């Protein structure tokens, strides 16, 4: 699995090698910071397995993947705090209640990104946005 992921990342991001190490390092700091606020799903997946000698592209992919579990935990916590079950969530239409829950999800999911200073967060965002695929 890691070989396949490394190959795909290398192919997709071949022209980005210079930025991959920096982005991977920033993502690693967020992964570490998220250990404090992550829920059960995140803590089951983090820190991610990182093979010795792994390329920066694989590390970035793996670190971003595990951060999705932090967001999933934040989403579940926001829904539960609002008093909704998983069955109710699937039935809820877009609107102000859902928007409030999404905003709380974003707030909770964003907490570990405070490990990066504002310039680093902008560098991270711009760097990720520049990646093909």
Draw up the topology in text.
Elements: H1 2-12, H2 17-34, H3 40-45, H4 56-81, H5 86-91, H6 96-110, H7 118-130
Helix pairs in contact: 2-4, 2-7, 4-6
Summarize the structure in words.
This protein has helices spanning 2-12, 17-34, 40-45, 56-81, 86-91, 96-110, 118-130. The longest helix has 26 residues, at 56-81. It contains seven helices and no strands. The model has no long low-confidence stretch (mean pLDDT 93). It has one domain. The two termini are 19 Å apart. It is mostly helical and 133 residues long. α2 packs parallel to α4 (56-81).
| Count of runs of 4 or more consecutive helical residues | 7
Our estimate of the beta-strand percent is under 5%
The ordered string of helix (H) and strand (E) elements is: HHHHHHH
Mean pLDDT: 93
Helix content: over 70%
Distance between the termini: 19 Å
**Structural class of the helix and strand makeup?**
mainly alpha
What kind of sheet is the major sheet? none
Shape: elongated
Cα-based radius of gyration, to the nearest Å: 16 Å
What is the count of distinct domains? 1
Low-confidence stretches: none
Task: Count the E strands.
Answer: 0
Summarize the structure.
This protein has helices spanning 2-12, 17-34, 40-45, 56-81, 86-91, 96-110, 118-130.
């Amino acid at each position: 699995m890691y070989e396949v992921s490394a190959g795909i990342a290398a192919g997709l991001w071949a022209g980005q090698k210079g930025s991959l190490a920096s982005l991977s390092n920033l993502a690693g700091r967020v992964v570490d910071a998220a250990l404090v606020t992550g829920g059960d799903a995140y803590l089951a997946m983090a820190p991610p397995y990182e093979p010795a000698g792994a390329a920066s592209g694989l590390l970035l992919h793996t670190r971003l993947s595990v951060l999705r579990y932090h967001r999933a935990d934040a989403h579940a916590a926001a829904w539960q705090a609002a008093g909704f079950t998983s069955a109710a969530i699937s039935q809820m239409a877009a609107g102000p209640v859902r928007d409030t829950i999404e905003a709380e999800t974003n707030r909770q999911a964003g907490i570990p990104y405070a490990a990066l200073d504002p310039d680093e967060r902008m560098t991270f965002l711009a760097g990720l946005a520049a990646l093909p695929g």
